[in-house]
Amino acid sequence: MSKQILLVTPSAIVARGLEQVFRDLGEFEVCGILTDLSGGLRGWEADVVIVDPEVVDFASRSQLKVRISDSTDAAVLVLASPSLEEEVQKQFDGAIGLYDAPTTIIRKVREALEGHSDVPKSEGEGLSLREKEILICVAKGMLNKEIADLYNISIHTVITHRKNITRKTGIKTVAGLTVYALLNNLIDMNSVD
Fold it and tell me: Which of 11, 60, 126, 152 has the most CB atoms around its CB within 10 Å?
């Protein structure tokens, strides 16, 4: 059975073009096309989600991967454009360019699936997606209150996530967590204050 792909893009042209690429090469099948995220992704049985960052406003792009990953375990690729910030693009399992050749698109989807299956899931000792987001904020020098406001959660929830991060990584200092985030490619040097 072919792997299922969910496309999330407001552009009918882009959606139909990608759908045709997958149909022609046969390895993947488009199981649905959404023009926005208003209905969420729950209920879609996709192995891969390809999302156009234009489905959210500019300010929300930095949280797009988290928003999608909160509702699916699928690998998530972004449709990259020259205007997409590198920091945003790094969050995803892969990126597809609008001018990529069909074989390149297929290769990138395969790589994203392979890489995604190697990532530890939120159960076990790997960091959950939310814990990674909290870790990134901590590494960037944000205070618990700022993190709570950013994610619309309580300060107590932030503290709980930080305790879980410390337990799972064995690292107790902000400096140590920053190094951990850098070494695990969660942030780059330029984003550290």
Answer: 11
Residue 46 contacts residue 21 (beta carbons within 8 Å): no
Quote the CA–CA distance of 190 and 193 in Å, as a whole number: 8
CATH code reported for the domain at 129-191:
1.10.10.10
Helices 155-169 & 129-139 angle (0-180, nearest 10)? 100
Q: How do residues 59-107 score in pLDDT, each as one tens digit? A: 777 778 877 877 788 889 999 887 778 877 888 889 999 899 999 999 9
Q: Is 29 left (phi over 0), alpha (psi -120 to 50) or beta?
A: beta
Domain span(s) for CATH 1.10.10.10 in the chain:
129-191
Neighbours of 35 (CB within 10 A): 15
**Strand-pair partners of 3:** 28
Residues contacting 109, CB < 8 A, separation 6+:
3, 5, 28, 48, 50, 75, 77, 94, 96
Residue 88: both structure tokens together = 């945003």
| Number of C-beta neighbours around residue 38 at 10 A | 7
Identify which of 101, 37, 98 has the alpha carbon closest to the alpha carbon of residue 70.
37
Class of domain 3-118: alpha beta
Alpha carbon of residue 83 to chain centroid? 18
pTM score > 0.85 for this model? no
Q: Which of 139, 136, 117, 140 is nearest to 127 (CA)?
A: 136
